[in-house]
Amino acid sequence: MARYRGSVCKLCRREGEKLFLKGERCLTPKCALERRSYAPGMHGRQWQYRRKPSEHGLQLREKQKARRIYGVLERQFRRHYQEAERRKGLTGANLLQILESRLDNVIYRLGFAQSRAQARQLIRHGHFDVNGRRTNIPSFLVKPGDEITVRGRSRKLIYFKDLMKGMDHVTVPDWMGFDVHTMTGRILRLPSREEIDVPLKEQVIVGYYSR
Fold first, then answer.
1. What pTM does this model have?
2. 30 backbone dihedrals φ, ψ, rounded to 5°
3. Which tens digits make up the pLDDT trace of 154-186?
4. What CA–CA distance (Å, rounded) separates 28 from 154?
């Protein structure tokens, strides 16, 4: 399946805000947005002086920002939206709930990776079990009661050994539990909108797909 291979820093510059796609680097002066706070490309400096974007343009930008934050392809994102429509409740809140339930996001939230991109790589390499079964699908949707554990063989790797030394200070969201000694996370419930700390206006995204 196709995947964006370019500089992720350009994505932040295009949206005009930090999307934290590179983990800790985004908090340092090395962050590209700190050094060049204008859109990428030869006409990037002129972008801010262009005319006010249309309503459709604002909706598109919000949808693209959500895709980039969670690292989801267009077809995947549309499937998640269609699933959100089928569920009871607000479609926008349901969409964010589904995105937060993706295994790559859960691994990131548990502190096993500094970014969702790194979490996807760890999952693809087969370092995690979900309910005792090896799972290497980043888009796998977890549900309340699921347990995510670092596989026994993977715990012997230097990466996870070093990671475990500093995980006592990791704060996980209230909708998840974490046991640092067994390196196991548990999904206690699905998150509410107030517990999802992403700078997104989900109803604007709903407006994009409701055209």
1. 0.80
2. -75, -15
3. 999 999 988 888 777 778 999 999 998 889 999
4. 30
Type of residue found at 203:
Q
Residues 161 and 172: their CA atoms lie apart, in Å, by: 19
CA-to-CA distance for 57 and 13, rounded, in angstroms? 17
Closest to 183 measured CA to CA, from 159, 164, 204: 164
Q: At residue 176, what is the residue type?
A: M
- Residue at 12: amino acid letter: C
Q: Which domains does the chain have, with CATH numbers?
A: 8-99+198-209 (1.10.1050.10), 103-187 (3.10.290.10)
Q: Give the residue from 141, 142, 108, 139 showing the smallest Cα distance to 124.
A: 139
The C-alpha atoms of residue 25 and residue 36 are separated, in whole angstroms, by: 15
